[in-house]
Amino acid sequence: MSILTEKQKMLAGKAYQAGDAELSKERLKAREIVFEFNSLAPKFIKQRKELLKRLFGKTEKMFYVEPPFRCDYGYNIEIGDNFYANFNLVILDCAKVSIGNNVFIAPNVAIYTAGHPIHPHLRDQEYEWAQPITIGDSVWIGGNVVINAGVKIGSNVVIGSGSIVTKDIPDNVLAVGNPCKVIRQITDEDKDYYYKNYKLGE
């Protein structure tokens, strides 16, 4: 039986040591690209987009990420079409982060696939683990939201500002709080509210 590398363990969701030479080299490579991305003047939109295409595992035609941005590896991040992220997005992508189409992310959002052992004996040996995060289509994530490892957020969801998402969130709901919980379904009444109160379409 072949011995798994620390990277293979990480991607398989097994306990691994992040100080491994291969993983350290890959994080440094990502940091170099992220540093260049964050250092470009605001007018260099096309250049920033090209850097993210190099960094991310998958992109579509329409996406925009406001600097500053931070991530661990980059190649575990997959974003859908019409993706927008505001300032200070942090994605610790030790496992895959899959994001659907038409997703809007407010400032200071943190997406953490990584976790550490509760017991200090293992934590002191620099073991950690990672679980994938999935975000569906047409999702709005409010400011200062934290999404923890292993979470799946459905489509057509709104996550309220300041929420800590520790469990899966189903489709078509508004969810808020710490820990984040479903408050109610999103219905056509919500659409009608905006047409009525903001006179959309006039």
Automatic annotation (TrEMBL):
Recorded superkingdom: Bacteria
Enzyme Commission code: 2.3.1.-
Entry annotated with the keyword Zinc-finger: no
Xref: SUPFAM superfamilies: Trimeric LpxA-like enzymes
Keywords for this protein: Acyltransferase, Repeat, Transferase
Name of the protein in its database record: Acetyltransferase
Organism: Pedobacter punctiformis
Segments forming domain Maltose/galactoside acetyltransferase: 7-61
Origin organism lineage: Bacteria, Pseudomonadati, Bacteroidota, Sphingobacteriia, Sphingobacteriales
Any one Pfam family match given in the protein's UniProt record, by short name: Hexapep
Family note: Belongs to the transferase hexapeptide repeat family.
Entries under InterPro entries matching the protein: Hexapep (IPR001451), Hexapep_transf_CS (IPR018357), LacA-like (IPR039369), Mac_dom (IPR024688), Trimer_LpxA-like_sf (IPR011004)
